[in-house]
Amino acid sequence: MMKKLMVAAIAAVLVTSSALAADLPPGKWWRRAEVAERLALSQEQQSKLDGVFRDAANDLIDRKGEVEKLTVALRGELDQPQLNRDDLRRLASRLTDARGKLFERELMMLVDMRAVLNDAQWTRLRAELDRQREQMREPMRQPMRQPMKRPMTPRGRRQ
Fold it and tell me: I need a surface site. Which of 88, 110, 111, 155 has the fewest CB within 10 A?
């Protein structure tokens, strides 16, 4: 029972990702023609956003790599026939710290990007992200279909 609780707790840590990563579109969203047009981004703003991204890229790669390494290490410990609670707790703590540092760096990149946008652009970007998020949630709200029943045999039994 304790092993199951520990595995569930560790799984929750592994599944949790930084909220910020889900907030912004992936990649260089400001270079996508439709986004740049909708936000009315100038060339100067796009260049500044490139600079913010470039300044953060190496640090983000390193921090994501550290999170990934610790995740693999944690999974390896969970696969051991005998679980060592102290080792698991230490790894979980290190993973939590690494995720916190990744989140902090992502947040600072967002702050720097926000400083490039004017209020109207930021509002339009947030509205677009909210709309996209809502569209992604919509299929999850629809009721699950009932599974198809297997056809009956001539004797009235299911195949």
Answer: 155
Q: Token digits for 100?
A: 């916190």
Which 3 state secondary structure label does DSSP give 1? coil
Domain parsing of the chain, residue ranges = 28-122
Widest Cα–Cα separation across the chain: 76
3-state secondary structure of 152: strand
Tell me the per-residue pLDDT of 46-63, one tens digit each, with 9 for 90 and over: 999 999 999 999 999 999
pLDDT at 142 over 60: yes
Residues with Cβ within 8 Å of 107's Cβ and at least 6 positions away in sequence, in order, are 20
Q: Which of 34, 20, 38 is nearest to 121 (CA)?
A: 38
Which residue's entry shows tokens 């990744």?
Answer: 102
Task: Read off the pTM.
Answer: 0.69
Which fold, 28-122?
A: Four Helix Bundle (Hemerythrin (Met), subunit A) (1.20.120)
Residues 91-139 have pLDDT tens digits of: 999 999 999 999 999 999 999 999 999 999 999 999 988 888 888 887 7
Beta bridge partners of 152: 158
Measure Cα distances from 121 to 8, 34, 113, 116, 127 in Å: 42, 13, 11, 10, 10
